Amino acid sequence: LFYMQQRGLSEGQAMSLAVNGFINDLVREFPMEYSVELKRLIDLEMEGSVG
User: 19, 50 in Cβ contact below 8 A?
Assistant: First the structure.
């Protein structure tokens, strides 16, 4: 996170990028409708946890 923040990303952007990087491979394994919903739920959770 420190590295990404030093490159100009906010804490929220850096955290979101890191989390999404880890879960992208997992999310791709699900059917499309589940992937979209899971991504939306993770984004909502991340939005509430940073700040």
Answer: no
